[in-house]
Amino acid sequence: MDADADFSLLDEDTGTTACLTGDWTAMRLHDAGQRLAQAVAAHDGLSIDLRKIGRCDTAGAHTIFRAADRRKASGKLLARRETLRLLHLVEAASQDKLPVVIPRRGFHALMNRLGRGIVDVRDDVYETIIFNGHLLTAVGRCLIRPHRIRWAAVISACERTGLDALPIVATTSLFIGAVIGLLGTNMLRDFGAQVFAVELIGIGVLREFNVLITAILLAGRSSSAFAAEIGAMKMNQEIDAMQVMGVDPFEALVMPRFIALLLMMPLLVFVATLAGLAGGMLVTWAALDLSPTFFLQRIVDNVGPTQFWVGMSKAPVMAMMIAAIGCRQGMEVGGNVESLGQRVTGAVVHAIFSIILIDAVVALIYMELNL
Question: Cα–Cα distances in Å, from 83 out to 8, 48, 74, 235, 327?
Answer without folding.
Answer: 19, 13, 21, 35, 48
